[in-house]
Structures are given as structure tokens and as C-alpha cells.
Amino acid sequence: MSAAAPATLPAFDPRDPLSLDGLLDDEERLIRDTVRQYVREKFLPHVAGYFENGSLPETTGPELGQLGLLGMHLEGYGCAGASATAYGLTCLELEAGDSGLRSYCSVQGSLAMFAIYRWGSEEQKQRWLPGMAAGTTIGCFGLTEPDAGSNPAGMRTRAKKVGDKWVLNGTKMWITNGSLADVAIVWARTEEGKVNGFLVEKGMPGFTAPVMHGKLSLRASVTSELVLDGVEVPEANRLTEATSLRAPLSCLNEARYGIVWGAAGAARACYEAALDYAKTRVQFDKPIAGYQLTQAKLVEMAVKVGQSTMLAMHLGRLKDAGTLRTEQVSFGKYHNVHAALEVAHSARSVLGANGITLEYPVLRHANNLESVYTYEGTHEMHTLILGQAITGLAAFT
């Protein structure tokens, strides 16, 4: 027997057309609202300047740390121990502000901190994680190289054991927070062919992290090169449990999960900007929201945002249950980033010429999403991951 319908249905919310808010518990809603308030009150009023200047303020780390957002899905060592869904909601709200802000949190927590948490020794965890959770110690993650992006097995960075130390030589590229980092998680291949992770500390002789300039995307984020020229790293700084590519790839999967949610946030920000603009922009004596072509664009955007958020939430519940597969994370990144790009481009057309200015968030998000489309696994790589899962046949080469 079906349950009785409520006396009155809740009003349709154009900003939450699928009523997904009702699927959250009180703690998840509180975390979501806290992050949303921070983004809207502390970050958004200044983000245009951050994007134009190509940087984030030094206070970003401590502010995120005070909110308990850095490594929030990890247990102990000053970390909040929040659910995967709560972490996802955090990524959504941060990227609704800017992809650079979500990347800061994601690189710190899902890459650098997770690498130590999952693959490091107890001594390494005690030394690094509390400060990183507080945002007073910044980390970065060095896997990508000039000639090894989609194929990390082709890395050329080498680690040679000399006495009780390791000597590292090589170059890493496109490293978020590299120039800011107090510690870099650097992945290198040993003489035995194993892939090890090393904690390379700021100031170690031979280690430099020059800022990469000329970006047209992810400008509210510091991107760097890591140069290792005979850097001597003590054995105590080697991630003791990491001996193969499985280690860095597990970190990437954590970060990709956050991107699934973050892309939905960027899409929502673009959709809301277009909706607000269309209801107030008057042409031919009425708001442009009253024209069929504009409504068609808004409907398409609303559907994509709803689908992306619902998909992210489903993956979050799977992750909390311990049943989320890497192929399903690829499914989420494949769909949500592509959908977010489409929403951003459509929203830009609704705003007309105003859509290209920093007064509105749309083209800033569109530019950022061009980076999100290719980092943490390109769209093509996730296509092949899903293709192999569906057919049972690998087609990477």
C-alpha cells in the first residue's frame, strides 16, 4: 500500500529542481551551509581580483583549516573524519566559488595528505598531518612530468639509493601549490624499477619550484614546476608502504572523486548566474527569460546541473558504503565535467557580452573547466577506462 501524499507539495525550487537537499542529513546540510557561507561572504567578493592577478591569498590555507576542510575525510591527526558525501558537498561549494579554491583543498587533502595517510609511516603522519589539517603546512603532489601525463608509467624522475639517503633527479609539471608547499610528495622510479613516494621538503638543496606563468585557466591558483637536481632525501622521508604505481593512482582516485562534485558546483554557479541575469535583463520590453530560446537554454542547464548533482550524491553514498569502484569515479568525472562545460558555454550565451567579463562568474568557470577537463585524467582517458570496464578489452594503446 502506497504512503499517503502530503496535504501540500513543497514549492518547486528552480535552484534545486530535483529536491536533492532533502536527501541530506542534518550534519551534511550543516557542513554544506557552512562552506557555502564562507565562499559567498569571504571568497566571492574578491575572486575576480584573484583570477586577474593569478594568485590566492596566503590566508586561504589557515581559513580552510579553521573550517576543518583540509583532509576532512581522513581520521585522526587533526582531521575531521567526515563522510565522503560531506567532503563531496564541500568540494561542490568550493568550486561553485572557483575551481582554484577547490583544487587547493583537493590537492592538500586528497593528494598530499592522503598519500601520507595511506602510504606513509606513523612517524610521517604524526609529523606532517596535523599542520596540514590546520592549513599552516602546505603540501603538493608531484606525479605529472613534461613527457608523462596520461601515462605515469613513463616517468623519468629517478631515485637512487646512496648510503642511507635517496638522490632524486627529474622534473614535475603542472603542480598545484608547488611554489607554496612546505613539503612535496614526489614520485620517482628506483633502480629496481619500483615507484616510490618521497617527502621532499622546502629548502632541500637542489630542489626548486618555479611558478608557471601565462595560464588562461585556473588563474586563482598557483601552478608550478618541480625541479629536482641531485636532491638528497633521507630514508625517513620515503613513503614506506608505496612501492608501485598503485600508490599514486589511489591518490588520484581520491582527487577525482572530489572533482565529480566540484564540477557540479561550477555548473550550478553558471546556471544560477544565467537564471538571475535572464530574469532581470530586459529586451524588447520584457525580461529575456520570457523568450522561448532563453528558456530552452535554462531548462537544459537546470537538467544538467540536477543530473550531475544527483550522480555525485549517488557516488558519495557508494563511497560511504565502501563499494565505490574506480570505474564509477571515471563515470562521474566523464559526465560531470563535460556537462559543466556545456552549462558554462550556454550560460555565457545568455549573458551576451556581459558573459565575458569578470563581473560575472561564467567565463571564469568556463576557462577553469577547460583545465578540469584534462587534469586528474583527461576526458579521453576516462573514456578508455569506461570502455575497458564495459567491454573487457583494453584500448589504451
Q: How would you describe this protein?
A:
Strands 3, 4, 5, 6, 7, 8 and 9 form a 7-stranded mixed sheet that branches. A two-stranded antiparallel ribbon has the order 1-2. A two-stranded antiparallel ribbon has the order 10-11. The mean pLDDT is 94. Helices cover 49% and strands 15% of the residues. The protein is an alpha+beta fold and 397 residues long. A hairpin with a 2-residue loop joins strand 10 and strand 11. It is globular. It has 3 domains: 20-134, Acyl-CoA dehydrogenase/oxidase, N-terminal domain (Butyryl-Coa Dehydrogenase, subunit A, domain 1); 139-243, Butyryl-CoA Dehydrogenase, subunit A, domain 2; 247-391, Up-down Bundle (Butyryl-CoA Dehydrogenase, subunit A, domain 3), CATH 1.20.140.
How many DSSP helices? 11
* Order of helical and strand elements: HHHEEHHHEEEEEEEHEEHHHH
Kindly state the percentage of residues in helix: 40-55%
Rounded mean pLDDT score: 94
Characterize the largest beta sheet: strand count, sense, and whether it forms a barrel: 7 strands, mixed
Number of separate domains: 3
Q: The CATH topology of the largest domain is what?
A: Butyryl-CoA Dehydrogenase, subunit A, domain 3
Distance between the termini: 55 Å
CATH superfamily annotation of the largest domain: Butyryl-CoA Dehydrogenase, subunit A, domain 3
GO molecular function: fatty-acyl-CoA binding; flavin adenine dinucleotide binding; glutaryl-CoA dehydrogenase activity
Domain Acyl-CoA oxidase/dehydrogenase middle: 140-231
Family: Belongs to the acyl-CoA dehydrogenase family.
Keywords: FAD, Flavoprotein, Oxidoreductase, Transit peptide
